[in-house]
Amino acid sequence: MAKRLYRYKISKGDIDKIARSEAPPAAVMPPEIAPGAPDKSSRETAARAFLRDYVQAQNEPQFSALGAGPMPLGDEPPVEEGPQLVLRQERSEAVTNTEVVSFEQVKDQVPIFGSKVIVEMDAAQDVVSASMDFIATDDVDIEETVSPDAAKAALAEWLETGDTDQLPEPVKTILPHPEDEESLYLAWHFQHVPLAPPDPDHDDDHEHAFGGVCCEGASFMEPDFDYFIDAHEGNVIYLFPNSARIDIPTRCQGEDEDGVNQTFFGRLDGPDFTMQNPFEDIRTLDLQLQSFETTPVPTDPISNTTNDWQNTNPAGVSAHVNAARVLDFLFRILKRDSIDGNGMELVNIVNTASNRAPNPPEWVNAMWYQDRMWYGQENTGGGFRSLSRYLDIIAHELFHGVTQHTANLVYQGLPGALNESFSDIFGVIISNWHLAQAPGDVNSWDWDIGMGLGSGGGAMRSMSDPSSVGRWRRPNPAGPGSQIVNGYPDHMNQYVPLPNSQFYDWGGVHWYSNIHNFAAHKVLTSPGANGNFVFTPEEVGILYYLVLTRLTRLSDFQDARAELLLVSDTVYAGNAARAQEARTAISDAYDDVGIT
């Protein structure tokens, strides 16, 4: 078959050569065009005159293949040969101070999909550039055998809906094959159809002229697709979604809760910018200091009229940025797609209050609840500050979600303490991985968790020295009641079974977790024979993550140790010396805290 597509690109330099009567490069612009004064009564007329002269001056047989027919030039006699063009747009380009005239190629008034011819002119209507993509249409039969109603019925059947009322009226179009310049189709073009194509994984019976239509990723909350039905055969030959633009991220900025200007990804949604990150599927909402127990969850993300929030919503900025940091670690280091491993949307809700708090709307808490992240705030005397500023706390809580979707450890006793410990371990690793001055050197790490939220404004817990913070409760061995113990336990010799009640922290989930935390700290800081650490922080994260995927709901500290040794054998398989070094370091760390 003869060639279909002919492309001609003419630059300002080519035009200048013509103006100086210099010989242009081959197949660019013959000098015969230069003489004469073209009609400049309008931009369209001047552009058409240029195109007419160009086509005539080429004197090449391929222009006959473009299809015999007039290229209308107003009242002027039409040229004998040349592509038919219809004016589509005239606009001024402020950047270059030029005028741009755009045409669409047609055949007997049937438009050719995707065709465009552009002529750019200066203020004097002298041509400065041109871009021409001509399609040869001489053998295309533009008389349809499938009517618009039949095409609509065929598309409705293919979309597995009997409702043709949802389909717009189609436009007859000549469709070039997207990947093959030699093939053209006469098609009925349905634009902006609010129906998604069928899932190819569940419907393999449809045949397509293009060898199969790609429908992956076509599941949208509000479908918007264009479809093409062959006007001779009646089958779907091409489709594409129009919704991709809503998932293009927009770079935004704003001050966080610490007064630091942060950059983050949001979305341009209509006239506003929103805290919705399409890259990592994060949406940040604002409960506006209402109670989470009684207030419906908002659906719309935090918005702003510009992409710079400045200091208008520091709680939202902190939550949005820190959530992205957590997902970044999950994806880059653990190769996990979001919290559930299947790309779930991460929803942040800031400015959350509680009816149960003693001084609402102050609610000094943050939690993973109902598959969402909720952030309370503390009253500092000069206003509220959101807990979304704590990356370690956010990572801690979000990792409860990871645990929920992996081991799903019960939240009681030693399994519950292990649940809490895994969140502490990853809270500290993720926070330092992003914020430490030397993330790869654990000597520079901050091992405190929730600094400022503990007793007297100190830390809530410390991985490096659990006994330095906090206090916990155990039954009084000398009689009735309980006794308070200052400093969290850091060895199993302090373990005693606790009642399963809120008074005793559901068997000590926040208290005994410190023993396992201390073991993990020793793993992270295990010295190697060469003076370096045995593990990198990333390796420790991978090992503990693999352990979490292997535990059962009732696993305890001993199970965690055993699984850690097993996964280290797998990770370092093929390197016996490295595997033994890892086993020794893990065994020593757990032995040191009495987990045997």
Describe the fold and architecture.
26% of the residues lie in helices and 24% in strands. With 596 residues, it is an alpha+beta fold. The protein is elongated, with a radius of gyration of 34 Å.
Topology:
Layout: E1 5-10, H1 12-19, H2 43-58, H3 62-65, E2 84-93, E3 98-107, E4 110-111, E5 117-121, E6 127-135, H4 148-158, E7 171-176, E8 184-193, E9 225-230, E10 236-241, E11 249-255, E12 261-269, E13 272-274, E14 276-277, E15 282-291, E16 303-304, H5 314-332, E17 346-353, E18 363-369, E19 372-379, E20 384-386, H6 391-404, H7 413-435, E21 448-449, E22 461-462, E23 471-475, E24 482-486, H8 505-508, H9 513-524, H10 537-548, H11 557-571, H12 576-592
Parallel strand pairs: 15-17, 17-19
Antiparallel strand pairs: 1-6, 2-3, 3-4, 3-5, 5-6, 7-8, 8-9, 9-10, 11-12, 12-13, 13-16, 14-15, 18-19, 19-20, 21-22, 23-24
User: If you average the pLDDT, what whole number results?
Assistant: 84
Low-confidence segments, given as residue ranges, are 21-37, 64-81, 200-221, 243-247
Q: What structural class results from the helix and strand content?
A: alpha+beta
Main sheet attributes: strand count, strand direction, barrel closure: 6 strands, antiparallel
- The percent of residues in helical segments reads 25-40%
What is the global morphology? elongated
Q: What is the terminal-to-terminal distance?
A: 78 Å
- Assess the beta-strand content as a share of residues: 15-25%
Secondary structure tally: strands: 24
Please give the count of helices: 12
